[in-house]
Amino acid sequence: MIALTVSLQVVPGRRDAFLAAIREQAERSFTDEPGCRYFDVVCDLADDHHFVFHELYDDEAAVDAHRAAPHYPAWQRAVAAYVVPGSRVTTLSRLLFHHS
Length: 100
Prior knowledge:
Largest sheet: 4 strands, antiparallel
Number of domains: 1
Order of helices and strands: EHEEHHE
Helix content: 25-40%
CATH architecture: 2-Layer Sandwich
Distance between the termini: 14 Å
Radius of gyration: 13 Å
Low-confidence stretches: none
Number of helices: 3
CATH class: Alpha Beta
Shape: globular
Mean pLDDT: 96
Strand order of the largest sheet: 2-3-1-4
CATH topology: Alpha-Beta Plaits
C-alpha cells in the first residue's frame, strides 16, 4: 500500500471554492478509482486555510492511475486558482500498518 500525503495552504478568500473542488476530487478518487482505498481531507485547527490530505492506494500503479484519472485536470486547475503557490508539499510513503 502507498500513502499519499498532501499539505497545502489555501489563498485567503478562496476557501469555499477550494472546499468544493477538493470535495469533488476526493469523492471521485474514492468512488471512480478502484485502487484508492481512502481519501481523507483534514483542516488544521489553528489555521482554517491549511489542509492535509491522507490518501491510500493499493500500489504505485494506482497512484499513477489517480494522476491520470479524467477528473484530475480539474483538480490541477483548482490548485492553480485556490492554492498558495509553493505551499503544496506531496509525500509518497509505504504504509507499514493501519488501524481500522
